[in-house]
């Protein structure tokens, strides 16, 4: 599975996302793209966009885009805050499908 980490997600998560090919937005040459453009360009190349931006599902339509969004909802975007979500992130990645929006929260 090919994963794209949004600019707001710490790169420190990459080693923990075992079993997937992971790129940052910067590595993919997509730094600075607005969410709509980012999704359009990433769709078809990446399977999942991982972000902490909870507004994306309300701002963007995934109806025609073959990409899923995985939202990490914690009280910050540091590695220490996101690491506890990793077991559920890895489980979600096993079943996530294109156009799914899955939010994983700390609570």
In brief:
By secondary structure, this protein is an alpha/beta fold.
What do the pLDDT scores average to? 92
- Secondary-structure element pattern, one letter each: EEHEHEHHE
Radius of gyration, in Å, reads 12 Å
Q: Please report the distance between the alpha carbons of the first and last residues.
A: 27 Å
Describe the structure.
With 107 residues, the protein is an alpha/beta fold. The chain has a single domain (2-105), classed as Rossmann fold, CATH 3.40.50. The chain has four helices and five strands; from the N terminus they run ββαβαβααβ. It has a five-stranded parallel beta sheet with strand order 2-1-3-4-5, covered by helices on one side. Strand 3 (48-51), helix 2 and strand 4 form a beta-alpha-beta unit. The chain starts with a strand and ends with a strand.
